[in-house]
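Format notes (please read before filing issues)

Several people have asked whether sequences and structure tokens are stored in separate files. They are not. Every record keeps both together, in the order shown below: the sequence lines, then the token lines. Line labels are part of the format and must not be stripped during preprocessing.
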Amino acid sequence: MTAQERLLALLNSQITGKALRPSDVTFGTPTAIEPIEGRNTEVIIYGNGVSGYKGQHRLLYRRIDLATITHHPLSVVLPAGSRYSSYDVVDRLNVAFNLDLDHSDIQYEDTLGSGSYELKAVVGGLRWVGSGRVEITRVVESIQPPLTVTELGEFTY
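Then the structure lines:
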């Protein structure tokens, strides 16, 4: 689920009437604000006239700094010798740590090495801000599978 879909689902759970779809609104750029009851971001949604909506509405909500989920060391293992991107790191973090990061939340960076990596939120992203450290370990995976043949059948000497 993208950040926009998640924010609309949250909004739809709080309103009465017809649920909003992503095609019904356009999101403005989120802006950091002084926290109001834990909410640190505002974004304006604009009605899409083609869908029959008009006007705008200010939403206040909380974006999360990536540093808060990486204050304990997070690490991923990637096979050596292959190209990997920040999206591959996101996929592995989601599986290993039961996170819910979406590719649309993270800056795309290609050809990652090993060691300490700075995972960065996209500028103007709806869900995440900032950055956080992830340790990447590259390992050489064996290309030789273990031998499982126990009989040679018709093969003789």
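For reference, the curators noted about this record: Residues 3-62 form one domain. The CA atoms of residues 38 and 62 lie 7 Å apart.
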